Amino acid sequence: MTRTTAPVPASERSARVVANVGPELFRAVRAERPRRIVLQVPAGLVRNAAELAARLREELGVPVDLASRACFGACDPPTSDEAPRADVAVVLGHAPIPNVPDVRSTFYVEMRDDAGDPRSLAATVAAGGVPKRLGLVASVQHLDLLDPLAAALREHGFDPQVGRGDRRLAYAGQALGCNYTGAEEVSERVDAFLFVGTGRFHPIGLAFAVGQPVWSIDPRRGELEPPIDRAALVRRRQLLVASVREARRWGILVSTFVGQNRSPTALALQARARAHGREAEILLAHRIDPADLLGRDLDAFVNTACPRISLDDSANYPKPVLTPPEFLMALGELPLQPYRFDTYH
Predict the structure, then answer these.
(1) Whole-number pLDDT of residue 142
(2) What domains can be seen in the chain, in order of their start residue?
(3) Would you state the pLDDT for residue 14?
(4) CA angle, 99 as apex, 96 and 102 as ends, to 5°?
(5) Which DSSP helix (H) or strand (E) runs through 56?
(6) In whole angstroms, what is the distance from residue 255 CA to residue 242 CA?
(7) CA distance readout (Å), 134 to 125, 131, 138, 214, 340
């Protein structure tokens, strides 16, 4: 018979943060006296997951399980069903989401990166024609760079602004794929935004969330990327909304991930659809998968899970997938302009 660990009482759970894998992490986890650990890593680090699991086993002398499904963020930590015997989780590459409860004591290893010279980066930004009233946003790995970069930018005549954001963000200036409220908070005081980090995922999300141009700079390479073409992004979404305005049968997608489950929103959208004479069925899933939606007698979907499923991955789905604000646009309850990003709070 499989032995399972009883859920940890909420009063005894803890979310701890460490900067990187090393002695600090091993000491902190050891103090928790775990019986079994589950390790979760993002897609970009899966090649090193087995090595880290081995280090944890060697340092702590307890079994370590590897969570195998794709990890999107702190919104989808390993569930009790996925790791029933683990009483401690180690989550690599993400910061905790303050308003998402942990099912067990969890250590978030944020993988802070000290790369990038603030003065050199500020000089590159100044030479790039970026507006002086500038909002700063960073991925969690590069948040430590924001304060010195802001100071260096001031020496070039910039007026940098960093917003705190709402209760879903652990840090001021933080970019979260579903939440850019730190940027929204300062949007009326800036003429542009600068994302500090790597890749296009966060700059694209930021461009959907704010109306100002979004530049980005890679701290390691020191290269300034031109602004995201927000108008093109929004235009594609508006055309998609227009294409399903006559859709009669809707599927409302709900994820059971602890940090993505918006069942109340789904029920409210179902009620709005029915008020407009449309059919709407709620479809529950753990991870939203296009293959699970094939063959259904539905015209379109509205996604209440991670908004980036709709915005980044909609081409992978058999029918159009809208965000909740876009769905209300399709029903005629919201105008197409201004475009509204589906922010998680």
Answers:
(1) 97
(2) 10-109 (3.40.50.11840), 118-228 (3.40.50.11850), 231-330 (3.40.50.11860)
(3) 61
(4) 60
(5) helix 49-60
(6) 26
(7) 10, 6, 13, 10, 22
- Look up residue 212 and give its two tokens: 């100002």
Q: Indicate the DSSP class of residue 47.
A: G
Confidence (pLDDT) at 102? 87
In the chain, which stretches have pLDDT less than 50?
A: 1-13
Q: What is the DSSP string of 167-234?
A: TT-SSTTB-BTTB-HHHHHHGGG-SEEEEESSSSHHHHHHHHH-SS-EEEEETTTTEEEPPP-HHHHH
Single-letter residue type at 251: G
Residues contacting residue 339 through CB under 8 Å, at least 6 positions apart: 208, 234, 237, 238
Please give the helix or strand (H or E) that residue 133 lies within, else none: strand 133-138
Tell me the backbone φ, ψ of residue 255, rounded to 5 degrees: -95, 145
Only one residue has tokens 């099912």, namely: 103
Element (H, E) at 251: strand 249-255
Count of Cβ atoms closer than 10 Å to residue 174 Cβ: 25
229 within 8 A of 245, measured Cβ to Cβ: no
The answer for residues whose C-beta is within 8 angstroms of residue 321's C-beta and 6 or more apart is 253, 300, 301, 302, 303, 309, 310, 313, 314
- What amino acid is encoded at 90 in this protein? V
For 296-339, what is each residue's pLDDT tens digit? 999 999 999 999 999 999 999 999 999 999 999 999 999 999 99
Left if phi > 0, otherwise alpha if psi is -120 to 50, otherwise beta: which for 332? left
Express the helix, strand and coil content of the chain in percent, nearest 5 each.
Answer: 35, 20, 45
Question: Which pTM was predicted?
Answer: 0.91
Q: Are 13 and 105 in contact (CB under 8 A)?
A: yes
